[in-house]
Dihydroorotase
Amino acid sequence: MAYLLKGVSILGAAPTDLHIVDGVVSDTPEEGAEVIDATGLVALPGLVDVHTHLREPGREDAETVETGSRAAALGGYTAVCAMANTSPVADTAGVVEQVWRLGREAGLVDVQPIGAVTVGLAGKQMAELGAMATSAANVRIFSDDGFCVADPKLMRRALEYVKAFDGVIAQHAEEPRLTEGAQMHEGEVSTRLGLTGWPAVAEEAIIARDVLLAEHVGSRLHVCHVSTAGSVEVLRQAKARGVRVTAEVTPHHLLLTDERAEGYDPVFKVNPPLRTRDDVEALRQALRDGVIDVVATDHAPHAVQDKECEWSYARPGMLGLETALSIVLSVYGPQWDLIADRMSTAPARIAGLTGHGGDLTKAGTPANLTLVDPSVQRVVDPAELASRSRNTPYAGMTLPGRIVATFLRGEATVLDGKAVK
Ligand SMILES: NC(=O)N[C@@H](CC(=O)O)C(=O)O
Ligand SMILES: [Zn+2]
Ligand SMILES: [Zn+2]
């Protein structure tokens, strides 16, 4: 199938015609190509998420590889990295290959499995990282996300081990002794609500330790869902010294604060917790500066019974794939170069996903792209989401931007704002 995107604006530039032929961007029109009137639409390289929970295998009631892939495509994504905290845990070549195969079968985005660092995410014994790296799933990112690799010796060993195949350890930075019983950010609001707090230092202490370990062994560290101003300062200093560290921030940490806990609505319960206005400001600036490299959704679908209960019993986590671009647009406005880098090019580089995040003005670039209508305002209706879960914190909010179409290697996965399959 060939397409002609007529009058499209590539990253906000003057309108042009974009030809998609044989899965790549082409400078020559193709006879009989399907014409899409792209007047007023902006083309971005397909978004890439380095942090997605797809819940399969094990919690198919919350999400499957297929439903999560559909949510991703509708959100403008062409690739997602699937976190390892499934059941069974993705800590063997067999499980990561299963997830990878399910992704291919769904065929809506490239699903790149993340392997666990430790067996069963238990933090005791290193998983078979090499076997996962050399499996068909070609794993490059390893993470115990949901849990922190708290043992410094194990963390050091893992960092050393993945150097051989240019792997990266993605750390959920949480010193577990400092967050025992934590329900939300530790601060004025937690004191008022009488909820046990997760102090900022529990995150910052682990990031400080890990950048020193990464520096010591000369290996790659990636920091998941950075949430505090202090973490930003640690990262700023580490990067200035040349440490091989990258970091992500979620859309919700760029927008929401701990005051959302005031209504005790568990939809706002998440790890790390929503922080303060000052933290939000520091995160916004850090993403602009490049101290934080990417926006990652940490899309964390949960079944109704795990979310619609009392705050302290609710699972942490919120949906992200279908609203991420709109949240980033609402925070930064139409800064398309910044958005394309932080949501596509940089995450593709971190995950080693060549073929994604490419330059759409160049012939031969794989046609992984998304078309956005920035003029549309939409009201988020949880019932309309493609995700199997409903735990969006943005229900009822009016957000800018709508994904009109998404293409994976030149094939439409979304057209007219609807998934093609
Ligand atoms: N972010 C969350 O609050 N929850 C995530 C785990 C995680 O990212 O730590 C989940 O798997 O539900
Ligand atoms: Zn996490
Ligand atoms: Zn996560």
In short: The CA atoms of residues 28 and 199 lie 57 Å apart. The two ends are 16 Å apart (CA to CA).
